[in-house]
Amino acid sequence: MKATSLSQITDVDLRLLRVFRAVAEYGGFAAAESALGITASAISLHMSELERRLGMRLCQRGRSGFALTDQGREVLRASTAMLVAIEDFRSEMNQLQQRLRGELNIGLMNNLVTQPRMRITSALRSLRRQSDEVHINISMSTPGEIERGLLDGRLHVGALPLINPLSGLEYRPLYDEVSLLYCSHDHPLFSQLAHVRADELAALPAVAPSYRMNAEALALHKGLNCVAKATDREAIAFLILTGEYIGFLPDHYAAAWVERGSMAPILPDTMRFRVAIAAVTRSGRRQNLIVDRFMDELFSETAE
């Protein structure tokens, strides 16, 4: 048989070598039929093809019985070592795939930590308990910055208001956030809250957010005298606490000041709006076990 050289090992070669290994292990074509699930004639064709590809006779078969040639024994030794290595590699990769190890980069808008439904906190706690090899990186940013970080791959997950979804991102609502209109105890309105009328609010200096708002929030802010702007909720709180401005804050964020008597809501039954907070990931992202596990925990029934 004419000698040949293998330029590379293909899937076809691996399949034929597995047939050869079974034939050698069971001592013949007929004996290997049940193990391989193919007929003896098909096995014979596979063996002939393997010998042609390798350019050497691997076994003697005929009336005298089945026997490996010297070259066949060397091929069996080398192919067995290679096939075992492949199986070991596959097993290790499968274990790695189920192993939580790596980084999780999360972008959050500020002041979500006071939200009573602590789904993000609960999911992070669960992830930590499952593996101490996950490194959490949290950055506090504006909604626009979070969306840009998700689109360019710097962030894996973001949490921000679901207002105008961007193409290329997937939004999954986490919970609704209610915002009320507040003034501080130093504001002239504070002592008159029980008697204030809605038409009186239009003349009072107010602060508006410079980030995107939904239609409900926009309509309420248009009825106010918004002479100041702020990039985030903490900045809005600073201006409200001066006693010179009124402004909207999430009720969970303002709760601590309300309990201390430093702030109070204004006409809470009507001066209020609701916005959905969403967990956001990039569309078509590569599979990532850590991100998938975090999202599963975030939306599990036990999340608080």
From TrEMBL:
Which PANTHER family is this protein grouped with?
HTH-TYPE TRANSCRIPTIONAL ACTIVATOR BAUR, HTH-TYPE TRANSCRIPTIONAL REGULATOR
Q: Which organism is it from?
A: Yanghanlia caeni
| Matching PROSITE patterns | HTH_LYSR
Keyword hit for Cytoplasm: no
UniProt entry keywords in alphabetical sequence: DNA-binding, Transcription, Transcription regulation
Tell me which residues make up the HTH lysR-type domain: 12-69
| Annotated InterPro entries | LysR_HTH_N, LysR_subst-bd, WH-like_DNA-bd_sf, WH_DNA-bd_sf
Family membership noted in the UniProt record: Belongs to the LysR transcriptional regulatory family.
Q: What is this protein called?
A: LysR family transcriptional regulator
